[in-house]
Amino acid sequence: MSHFKVLYFASAKDASGKESEEFEWFEGIGCEKLTQLLVERHPDLAPVLKTSMFAVNMEYMDQGLSWTVQPRDEVAVIPPVSGG
């Protein structure tokens, strides 16, 4: 069975309680389905994901475009951050 890895940063890490985890891969995991999978596993992520970006294999994904997660991909959940 194939998997993909999700990395959580900043408030996504706090909401999920994890730095990373693996998910079972299946055909057709795009932005909407990925968001659904993450919220099913970690309901506290729902508000964080509304303002977060996804990066797949260190490349930012446009949430408005069609893209899918592939086996062994590394997906980062990157919430907005502020510096000081």
From TrEMBL:
Protein source organism: Dissophora globulifera
Pathway annotation from the record: Cofactor biosynthesis; molybdopterin biosynthesis
Main location: cytoplasm
Entry's Gene Ontology BP terms: Mo-molybdopterin cofactor biosynthetic process
Keyword Repeat: no
Lineage: Eukaryota, Fungi, Fungi incertae sedis, Mucoromycota, Mortierellomycotina
Cited InterPro entries: Beta-grasp_dom_sf, MOCS2A, MOCS2A_euk, Mopterin_synth/thiamin_S_b, ThiS/MoaD-like
GO terms under cellular component: molybdopterin adenylyltransferase complex; molybdopterin synthase complex
Protein name, entry field: Molybdopterin synthase sulfur carrier subunit
